[in-house]
C-alpha cells in the first residue's frame, strides 16, 4: 500500500508529493498515539509474569545482590526448581491440589449435569425457586460461610480431610456449573432424548450417554473453569487444611513467604509451577471462555 | 425380554435429578448462613463444643459499631479496597478496551496478540499474583526499588507494603493488576455490540470523535458499566486474599479490611461469634448490591425474551 502511494506520488508535482508524504507521516504519528500507550499498558500487565519466570531461573547469588541490568540474564538455570522439589514439601502440595481439584471437578460435573438436565427438560413447580437459589448462592460472600463451616466440619470430623475440602469445593463451584451446563443442554433438541427413551434408555443414561457427549465441547469449558476455581482457591483451603501434609499448592506457596523469605528464586519457581496448569487449561478454552464471560455480562 | 415400564411417573423425575445438587447447596450455603446468624448471638471459641456456647444477645454487634478498629476496617474496605480500585479499573479498563478495539491495531496486525496479552494477569492465580508483586516491591532487591534508585528517584529502597504512606497504594495496584482483564473483556464485548450505523449517522450529523464517544459510545455502554460496577464491587468488597497475603492487615491494623477482620476475630482472637457478626454486616451491605444486580440482570433477561 505504501509503495503504491509512493509510485503515484512520484508521477505528480513535487508539491503534491510533499502533501502525500506529510499525510502519511501524520497518520503514522497518529498510529503511534495508539500503539505506544497500548504497548506500555500491556507491558505493565505482562511484566510481573515474565519477571516471575526470569527470577525462578536466575542463580541465588545474583538475586541477593544488586545486579547491573546488563548481567540480568547471566547464569540462568533450574537450580531453584531443584531446591523446590528436594528441599520443601511442594511436591506433596501439588499432589494434594491435583487430587482435590480433580475429584471436586468430577463430582461437580456429575451433579451439575443431572441438575441441569432436570432444569432444562422439565417444567416443574419449584423450577423457578431452584434457579433463584442457585443464582443467589453466587452472590453470597464466601468469607461469611467460613466460621459456621469450620465448626460444622469440625463436629463431623472433616477438618484436615480431603473429603471436607472436596465437599466445600463442590458446593462452591456447583451453582455456576449448573448455570453454564443448563445453557448448553438447552441447545440440544429434545428429539434425541425421546429417541433414546424409546430405545429403553434410563434418564440418567440419557444424561450421560446421549446429552453429555453432545454437550462435551461446552462442558469442557465448565470443567476448566471448575478446575481452575478450585486450583486457585486459597481461603477455605487455608482455614480447613492446617496440617502441613494436607496443604494445597496455594496455601503452600503462601507459607513460603515467611518460611523461605530470602529465597525468592525458589518462591518464584513455586509460583511458576502453580501457574502452569491454569495457563495451559485457560489457553485451551480461552476463546469460548472469554466469549461466554463477555456474553454473560453484555447480553441485552 | 421384560422391558422396564415405558411410562414411569415423570412428575418426580425433575426433583430426583435436581435433589443431589440442591442437597449440597443447602448443606453448604443455607445451613451455614442460618447457623452464622445463631453464632452471631453467641460467645464461642474454636476449642469449645458448640453446645458450650453462651448466649450474649447483641453484644457482638454492639462491639462492631463501637470498636474503632472495626470502624477503620469498614472504611478501608469501602474506600481503599473497593471504591478506589473499582474506579481505577473502570477508567483503565474502558481506555484499554477502546485502544484494543482501535483500527490502528488492526491495521498493524497487532490486535490478536494484544487481546491475548491483556488476559495474562487473569490467568495467574491470586496467590501467585501476590507472590510476584511482593517480589517486585521487595525493599532491597525488588525490581521496582532497583529501578527507582538507579533513576535517582529514591535514595534507597522502600518497603512499599510495610509503611503506611504506601501500603494501600501497593495493595490497590495488585488488585487492579489482577482484576483489570475481566473489565477489559466485558467492555470490549460491549463496544462490539454497538451498531456501526450509529457511528455513521453521528458522522453524517458531523459529530467529531469526542462527540460520537459522548453521544453514541457512552450511552450504549451504560448498562454494561452498571453490571461491571456491581460485579466488581461485590467481588472486591468480600476479598480476603490480597490484603491478608500482602500486609496481613498491617502495619499494625492500618490496612485491616472487614474480611481480614472477620478472620482475625474468629481464628486469631478466637471469638467465633464476633466473626459471625461481622459476616452478617458484610452480607447485609453486599445484599443491597446483590439485589440491585439481580434486578438489573433479570430486567434485561425479561427484555431479551
Automatic annotation (TrEMBL), chain A:
Keyword RNA-binding: no
Entry's localization field: Cell membrane
Keywords of the record: Cell membrane, Membrane, Transmembrane, Transmembrane helix, Transport
Domain of life of the native organism: Bacteria
Statement: the UniProt record of this protein carries the keyword Manganese: no
UniProt membrane topology term: Multi-pass membrane protein
Residue intervals of the ABC transmembrane type-1 domain: 94-285
Pfam families, alphabetized: BPD_transp_1 (PF00528)
InterPro entries in the record: BP-dep_ABC_trans_perm, MetI-like, MetI-like_sf
Annotated PANTHER family: INNER MEMBRANE ABC TRANSPORTER PERMEASE PROTEIN YCJP, MALTOSE TRANSPORT SYSTEM PERMEASE-RELATED
Family stated for the protein in its record: Belongs to the binding-protein-dependent transport system permease family.
Designated name of the protein: Carbohydrate ABC transporter permease
Taxonomic classification: Bacteria, Bacillati, Actinomycetota, Actinomycetes, Kitasatosporales
UniProtKB/TrEMBL annotation, chain B:
Membrane topology of this protein: Multi-pass membrane protein
Localization terms from the record: Cell membrane
Origin: domain of life: Bacteria
Alphabetized Pfam families for the sequence: BPD_transp_1 (PF00528)
Record key words, sorted: Cell membrane, Membrane, Transmembrane, Transmembrane helix, Transport
Domain ABC transmembrane type-1: residue ranges: 75-293
Main location: membrane
Transmembrane segments: 21-41, 78-100, 112-136, 167-191, 224-245, 272-294
Signal peptide annotation: none
Protein family membership: Belongs to the binding-protein-dependent transport system permease family.
PANTHER family assigned: BLR7065 PROTEIN, SPERMIDINE_PUTRESCINE TRANSPORT SYSTEM PERMEASE PROTEIN
Protein name: Sugar ABC transporter permease
Amino acid at each position: 500500500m505504501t509503495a503504491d502511494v509512493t509510485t503515484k506520488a512520484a508521477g505528480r508535482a513535487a508539491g503534491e508529493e510533499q502533501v502525500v508524504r506529510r499525510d502519511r507521516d501524520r497518520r503514522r504519528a497518529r498510529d503511534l498515539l495508539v500503539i505506544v500507550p497500548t504497548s506500555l499498558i500491556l507491558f505493565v500487565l505482562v511484566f510481573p509474569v515474565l519477571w516471575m519466570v526470569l527470577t525462578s531461573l536466575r542463580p541465588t547469588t545474583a538475586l541477593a545482590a544488586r545486579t547491573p541490568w546488563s548481567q540480568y540474564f547471566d547464569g540462568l538455570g533450574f537450580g531453584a526448581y531443584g531446591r523446590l522439589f528436594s528441599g520443601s514439601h511442594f511436591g506433596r502440595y501439588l499432589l494434594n491440589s491435583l487430587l482435590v481439584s480433580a475429584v471436586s471437578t468430577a463430582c461437580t460435573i456429575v451433579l451439575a449435569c443431572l441438575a441441569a438436565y432436570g432444569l432444562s427438560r422439565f417444567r416443574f413447580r419449584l423450577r423457578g425457586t431452584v434457579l433463584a437459589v442457585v443464582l443467589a448462592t453466587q452472590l453470597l460472600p464466601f468469607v461469611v460461610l467460613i466460621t459456621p463451616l469450620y465448626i460444622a466440619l469440625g463436629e463431623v470430623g472433616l477438618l484436615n480431610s480431603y473429603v471436607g475440602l472436596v465437599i466445600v469445593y463442590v458446593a462452591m463451584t456447583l451453582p455456576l456449573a449448573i448455570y453454564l451446563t443448563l445453557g448448553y443442554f438447552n441447545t440440544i433438541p429434545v428429539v434425541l432424548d425421546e429417541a433414546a427413551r424409546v430405545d429403553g434408555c434410563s434418564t440418567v443414561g440419557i444424561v450421560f450417554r446421549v446429552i453429555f457427549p453432545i454437550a462435551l465441547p461446552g462442558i469442557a469449558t465448565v470443567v476448566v473453569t471448575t478446575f481452575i476455581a478450585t486450583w486457585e482457591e486459597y481461603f477455605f483451603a487455608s482455614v480447613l487444611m492446617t496440617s502441613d501434609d494436607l496443604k494445597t499448592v496455594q496455601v503452600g506457596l503462601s507459607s513460603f513467604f515467611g518460611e523461605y523469605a530470602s529465597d525468592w528464586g525458589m518462591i518464584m519457581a513455586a509460583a511458576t509451577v502453580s501457574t502452569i496448569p491454569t495457563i495451559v487449561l485457560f489457553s485451551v478454552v480461552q476463546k469460548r471462555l472469554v466469549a461466554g464471560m463477555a456474553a454473560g455480562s453484555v447480553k441485552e | 425380554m421384560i422391558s422396564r415400564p415405558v411410562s414411569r411417573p415423570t412428575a418426580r423425575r425433575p426433583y430426583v435429578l435436581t435433589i443431589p445438587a440442591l442437597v449440597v447447596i443447602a448443606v453448604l450455603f443455607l445451613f451455614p448462613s442460618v447457623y452464622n446468624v445463631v453464632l452471631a448471638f453467641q460467645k464461642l471459641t474454636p476449642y469449645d463444643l458448640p453446645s458450650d456456647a453462651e448466649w450474649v444477645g447483641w453484644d457482638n454487634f454492639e462491639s462492631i459499631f463501637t470498636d474503632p478498629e472495626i470502624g477503620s476496617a469498614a472504611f478501608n474496605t469501602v474506600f481503599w479496597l473497593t471504591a478506589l480500585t473499582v474506579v481505577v479499573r473502570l477508567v483503565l479498563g474502558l481506555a484499554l478496551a477502546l485502544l484494543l478495539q482501535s483500527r490502528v491495531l488492526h491495521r498493524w496486525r497487532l490486535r490478536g496478540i494484544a487481546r491475548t496479552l491483556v488476559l495474562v494477569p487473569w490467568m495467574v492465580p491470586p496467590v501467585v499474583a501476590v507472590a510476584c508483586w511482593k517480589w517486585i516491591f521487595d525493599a532491597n532487591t525488588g525490581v521496582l526499588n532497583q529501578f527507582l534508585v538507579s533513576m535517582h528517584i529514591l535514595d534507597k529502597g522502600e518497603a512499599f507494603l510495610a509503611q503506611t504512606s504506601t501500603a494501600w497504594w501497593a495493595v490497590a495496584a495488585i488488585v487492579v493488576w489482577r482484576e483489570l482483564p475481566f473489565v477489559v473483556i466485558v467492555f470490549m464485548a460491549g463496544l462490539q455490540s454497538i451498531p456501526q450505523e450509529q457511528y455513521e449517522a453521528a458522522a453524517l450529523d458531523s459529530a467529531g470523535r469526542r462527540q460520537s464517544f459522548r453521544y453514541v459510545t457512552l450511552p450504549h455502554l451504560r448498562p454494561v458499566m452498571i453490571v461491571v460496577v456491581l460485579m466488581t464491587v461485590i467481588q472486591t468488597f468480600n476479598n480476603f486474599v490480597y490484603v491478608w497475603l500482602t500486609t496481613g492487615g498491617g502495619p499494625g491494623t492500618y490496612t485491616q479490611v472487614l474480611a481480614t477482620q472477620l478472620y482475625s476475630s474468629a481464628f486469631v482472637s478466637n471469638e467465633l461469634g464476633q466473626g459471625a457478626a461481622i459476616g452478617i454486616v458484610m452480607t447485609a451491605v453486599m445484599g443491597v448490591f446483590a439485589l440491585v444486580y439481580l434486578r438489573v440482570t433479570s430486567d434485561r433477561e425479561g427484555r431479551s425474551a
